[in-house]
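HUMAN: Ready with one sample?

ASSISTANT:
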Amino acid sequence: MKKNYTLLTGLVLASCATFAQSGALSTKNVQPQEQAALSSTPKSVDPDYAKGFNKIPKAFLDTVYFEDFGSGTSISLPTGWNVVNNNPNNFQWVWNNVYVDGQFSNAANIISSPSVANGFMVLTADDFNTPIPATGAVAMDTYFESPTITIANPRASYWVTYDQAVRYCCSGANRLVIQASVDSFATFVEYDATNGIAVNAASDTINIINISSAVGGASDFRIRFVSEGNSHYYWMIDDFAVIEGAANDLELRTPYLEFNFDYAFNPFYGQIPYDLFPPLPVSGLVYNNGSNNATGVELQASISHQTFPGGTPGLGLVYTSASTPQSFVSNQVNDTTYYVVSPTVGSANPRFVPTVLGNFSVDLLLTGDSLDLSSNVIGVHTNNRLFATSDTIFARDDNGYGGGTGPGSYVRNGQTGGQLPGDAFGTMYIVESGTGGTQLTKKPTSITYAVSTDLDQIGVEITPTIWSYNEDSSTIALAFGAVQASSFIPYTITAADIGNLLTLPFDNGPGFMNGLDSGQIVGGWVVTNTNGGFNFEVQADASSGQFQDDVTCFIDLAHSPGWGWVDANPVIRINFADLPQPTGVRNVSTSNATFTVVPNPNNGEFKLTISSTEKVTYTLNVRNVLGQAVYTDNITVNGTVTEQMDLTQFEKGVYFVSLENGTERILKKVVVK
C-alpha cells in the first residue's frame, strides 16, 4: 500500500491451507480486516509502499561476525546465545535441525539455508497452537539474543544478513523484528524483519538489514530476534552474519506503475481497456543503504510495445523518461525510503499514454554519481510482459492463477463464511476516462470469473454485481455505495464451469444502462443460494498479486454483516463495451410494445412475439455478453408480429434481445444452452 491506514480490530486466525497451482499460499479461513479513516501520508515516507519485495543477495563485504548455529543442541544454544520467553509457557524459540509442523503448515516448510543440516533457530508457533487451546490461540512473546559481538576495528556502517524462512501471522500489528543495542538493551533500535511480505504470506530468502543507525562506529553490540503477537505459522533463522556496510549502495527495490495515481488505494492491472487507460506515471522506491550520501541519483524508465494483439511484433521503444537528479542522505535510519516519480524528458506531463493496443514492458535503471555496490536494473516481470491494452477487458491478473479464494476462505466471529446466502466478495477497479472526463463512454457489460476446481461449488447460485466505492469514507462499510450493475436472474454453477472462465452478464442497474462516472468500483458477486452450505470461489493470481495494494479486495459475510478487506488477488475481470444507445435514448419499464421469448432457456432456436397497440418501428438487436451485436434487423409492429430466431451458429451462453428506437429501449435476456 502506498498510504497509511489504521485497523479497527485485530485479527484472529482460524485455519489455513496451501495450494499448489499458483505456487503461493492461500489465506484459508483468515479473519477479514476492518478499516478506519484513510490518511494521506506522503508516499515518499511510507515504508510499507514496497509491498512484495524480496531482496536479492549481494556480494557481501568483509564479514566481522558469523554464526551458522551448527554447535547448538535441542537443550542448548551456541556459546553466548540465549532465549527469553515472556509468556509463562514453553512457547519459545528453540534450536532444531527439522521443522515441527502444525495444523496450518507442513514439514516441507524447512528453511533452505546452505547449512540447514547442522541446525537453525526456529519458532514453531503453529505446532505450539495445535490444536488451538479452548481459551484461544496463544500469541508468541519470545526472543533469542546474540552474545556481545566485539569488533577490533569499528566501522562506520554495519549490516546484518541471515537466511530466513517465515510465514507472517496474522496481522500487520504483530512484531517480527530484530533489535540492535550497544548497552545490553537498556536502549536499542528496532528493525522490521518481515522483509515487507504481506500478512499471511510466506518467503524463504536472505534478509539484509542496515543497522548502522544503532551500532555504526561501535566496538561492542548485541542483536535480538523478537517475535510478538503471532499465533501461528513459523519463523526460522540461520547463517547469521554481521558485515561491513558499503560506502555506496543505492537500491531500486520496487518499480511500480500506478494506473490510478491520484487514489490512495489503487489496483495494478494486467489488462486495461484502451480508452479507459489513465495517463500513467512511472515510479519506484529508492533505498540508500550506503554510509555515504548519494548525489546525482536519477531514475530512468523505458516502456516498450512488445506485441500487437495476436502476437505480431510491436513498435519497440515507445516511451522514455528520467527523474530530476537528486541527493539522498546516508542511511542513518532503517532503510531510508525515497519515492521517485520519473517525468517525461522535456515535458511538463510526466505520464505515459499508449497509442496502440497490445503488450507492453517496463524497464527501470537507477544511476548515481558514485560507483555502486550492486546493479540496479530491474525488469518488473521476467516474461517481459508487464501489462496489456485491450478492447474490452479490465483484469488485475496476468493469466498465472490457481488455487481458490472466496467467502469460504475466511471466518468472522468464529464462523466460516461461504455457508449462507448473502455472502459477498469483490475486488476493486478504478475506471477513468482516457480523455480526462468524468462521464465514461464505455459501460460494464459482464464479469468473468476464473472458477476454482472445487466440485462443491456445483449448484451454488450467484449474482454478478458491481458496487460503487469511495475510499474517503471513514470505514470500509461506509465506503460501499449503491449497486451499479447486477443481474435480474442469479446464475447456478454447473459442472462445466469448474476450473474454467465463466462470464456472466449484467442486465440491471445504472452501470449497465447508463455507463459509470469515473471513480472506484468493486466487481464481484453475491451468493443467493448455497445449495446446502457450499461455497463459490475463484482462482487467485499470486504473481500480479504482489503488486496489488492492500484494501483493494473485500468480503461481506452474511452471518456477521459488514464489509472488510482481505489480502487476496482474485481473478475477477470486468468486461466493458461502448454505450450502444445514442444520446437521448432512455430505458423504459413501460411501453406500448411488449415482447416474449419462447422457449427460454433454449438451444439457440426461439420465437419472438412482439405486440404493440400502435404502429411503431424498432431496431431489433441481439447482443452477446460483451455488448457485441450478433444480429440486427428493422421491424415495424402494428398489432402482433412473430419472428423466428436461430442462434445455433453462435456460442452457448447469455444473449440480450432489445427493441430500440429514438425514444425507448426494451430488453430481454435469452439463455442459449
